[in-house]
Amino acid sequence: MISGSPSRTRLTPCAPGTTGCAPRRFWILALAAVLSSAWIAPAAAGPHPRVVSINMCTDQLVLALADPDQILGLSAYARDPLLSFAAAAAANYPSLSGGAEEVLVLQPDLVLAGRYTRTVTRGFLKAKGIPLAEFDVARSIADATAQIRRAGELLGQQARAEAAIAAIDAAVARAEAAPYRRLSVLPLQRRGWVAGGRTLTTDLLETLGLANAGAAFAATGGLVPLERIVVQRPDALLLTREAVAAEDQGSALLAHPALVALYPPERRIYLPERLTVCGGPMLAEAIDRLAAEVDRLGRLAK
Question: S-S: 151 plus which of 54, 61, 82, 83, CB 3.0-4.6 Å?
Answer without folding.
Answer: 61
